[in-house]
Amino acid sequence: MRNSIPIFLSLQAFTALSLSIAADDFTVNLRNKVVPDPVVQQDVRQWKPEETAIIICDMWNEHWCKGATARVAEMAPTMNKVITIARNRGVTIIHAPSDTMKFYAVSPARQRIQTGYNDPEIRRILGGRDNWSQGLPSEQFAKWPVDQGDGGCDCEPTCKQGSPWQRQIETLIIDEEKDMISDSGIAIGSYLKEKGIKNVIVMGVHTNMCVVGRPFGLRQQVRFGNNAVLMRDLTDSMYNSKRWPHVSHFEGTRRVIDHIEKYICPTITSTDFTGELPFRFQGDDAE
Known about the structure:
single chain, alpha/beta, Rossmann fold, two-stranded antiparallel sheet, 9 helices, 30% helix, 17% strand
């Protein structure tokens, strides 16, 4: 690890090593769990901004579930703070509000990645098209932690399903001169590969559906060979607390995050960018 320094280094050597770490590098505190125990592992890394991207998954202006829509709106201001800090430090920001690309047809951020990124190896990994991933080999014998078979709406009465989203929530600022807009795993994966970006942080919704499964989601980023990471405090699940395992909505999300840390990839929190306490939803009273 770059920040591990042998204790026998002289002061001169220590100074030289310290100077070799660029001033604009940032620290991430990775957490994952080793099964079958599971044992929590913490790993501190130094990442270069130019080798890092944040993908914002499906933070739509409206969801068919009113509860999901409200939680997106609650989370968005903290998320915007994170991407603003990250962008200013040189991290690539990719907005991925799936199924809304027509809204951004004339956006420079959309046009920047719309053509020219079609790497044959990325296409091969995705099966020739923008396929979802239903699971990694590491998940083969793992039981999915929540029952989401009803769509995951936790409202009373249950909301009617549909596709009301039209764009990304406006709280999240898109920098037209720097950011990208895409929902294509082929385009995003090809862009990351061409630019030498290996550290990929995914945030957004929903943890147990789009965040893990989309063509640009966590599982596919792992398959691309990238250092995939979930920002675990800036995500939300579609889980109905009346379904198995009959826990609160927020505990259901934590159980999905636990699965991700065991079988898919590590997680971090927004604290690594903001220096503030991790985001927490109102109503989440877990200690």
